[in-house]
Each structure stands twice: as structure tokens, then as C-alpha cells.
Amino acid sequence: MGVMAMLMLPLLLLGISGLLFIYQEVSRLWSKSAVQNKVVVITDAISGLGKECARVFHTGGARLVLCGKNWERLENLYDALISVADPSKQTFTPKLVLLDLSDISCVPDVAKEVLDCYGCVDILINNASVKMKGPAHKISLELDKKIMDANYFGPITLTKALLPNMISRRTGQIVLVNNIQGKFGIPFRTTYAASKHAALGFFDCLRAEVEEYDVVISTVSPTFIRSYHVYPEQGNWEASIWKFFFRKLTYGVHPVEVAEEVMRTVRRKKQEVFMANPIPKAAVYVRTFFPEFFFAVVACGVKEKLNVPEEG
Questions:
Q1: What is the pTM of this model?
Q2: Is 80 domain-assigned?
Q3: What does UniProt give as the signal peptide span (predicted)?
């Protein structure tokens, strides 16, 4: 009996490995078919996440429209995508569009340019975001407005410009890449958190409005998207509760992980995705069900005059 069990174990492991391989291949092919020939608009394509989304969707055979506010960096991204394209697979030459979402006045013209070129937009990925850190009383109202333009008014203006096309065709998907601060605020991020709350609220409402037209609204909210080579220090229980909480909170996700999750969100038509380790996830529930405790922990951090590290 013992010999049979020893012989069966390798076969079992081999079988599991085979099933995992088959699942990964089917998932990869499914992802490709989900975006093949689809017109996909990506804002802030020159950011770390934007580049990874461009790579994933270009490999999947999408007709990309890459938006960014620096033409030289857009061309560099274009060259990078073309250079790694597999000749044996069908891919399309990306279209480059100059777009600064903080300049609301140019957004309708960009939407018209895209629609004139392709006739439709199947998937819009609202990725652009501007971060700001500092005490609320030291940030000017002018800067507050700029942050709101880039993080809220810009994305919703582009969404409103492209949405009628999706509604008339009764198909389409809009993905908002948001942030955990759309769920709760963190000290010294007042304007940034306000813009993320506003964006999340808008798209949550829009989801119900356009469901009857088969337009899907998806939100993907990571803690924050870290740079390629930054790994924050681990927290420990010897430090204060706030410092432990904040270190766990700021342990962001890699751009590659977020881009792959965006692809899965598009493929499976998910409505909401929250990318975080257990501490931030728990914080969302604590904020909801035990607000006084949550506020006390956050206030403790301010009293300690914590030097908040930069995001991203």
C-alpha cells in the first residue's frame, strides 16, 4: 500500500501540473480573443502602468490608441511595442494621440479624432492620475483644482465624449484605474483622496445607468502602483500601530500585476477589483464598521508627525 502511494504521488503532481498548464494556455488564448481587433484607448500610456497595459493589449491583438502628454515618450513606447511584436501573431500599429487630461478643453477634440479614425471605441482604460502630498492648509486652491481636473474632470470628460458611441452600439467597457484612497482617506493626501472618491462615485453611479445598454463599467483599485525597483520596508509590531498599518498600506503592487489584472477585468467583465494585501483590505472594513477606531489610528499617526513616504 505504501509503495502504491509513493508511485501515485508523482503521477498526481504531474497531473496537477498538466491541468495548470492547460488552464494557463486557455486563459491566455481567452484573453487574446477578448481584445482581438478591439479598439482600446489607454490614457497616460507613457506611465509605468500605461506601458504595461499597452504591452498586454498589443500582444492580445487590440487596435491601440495610446494617449500621453509627451510625444517623444509616446514614440519611444511605439518603437518598443513594434520591436517586440511577434510576426507570427496578428498585431496592429498603435495610434498615438497627444492628450493632457488636466487640460479639459482639448479632450472633446481627442475623442473626435479617435472616433473619426476607427469609428468606435470598444474599451476605454482611464489610467491617468496625478499625486499630491502635503498638509491641506498649505496646498493652494489652484493646485487643488489642477488635481481635480487631472484625476476627476479629465477622465469623466473623455468618458462622456466616448460613451454615446458605446450606448448607440450597445456594447463597450470603461475601466477606471483608481486607488485605495477612493475608499478612505489618508492624512496629507486630502486633494488626491477627494479626487479618487469623486471618480469612484461617478463610475459607481454610471455603472447602473448604462447596464441596460450592455456597457460595462469596471473599477480597479490597488493600494498604489509602485515603481519597478522599489520595495518598501516590512512593518513590525514593535513599531506603533499606525506605522505598522501605514507600511502595510503603502506596500504597492507592481505595474505588471495591475496590467494583467486590468486584462482579466476586461476579459471577465468584472465590475470592481480591489488589489491589496490583507491589512488595507481590513482597513476598508474597519473604516466602514468601526469608524471611531479607524479615525483614532489615523489621528495617532498625525500626532506622531509621521514623515509620510512618497507614493510611486
A1: 0.81
A2: yes
A3: 1-18
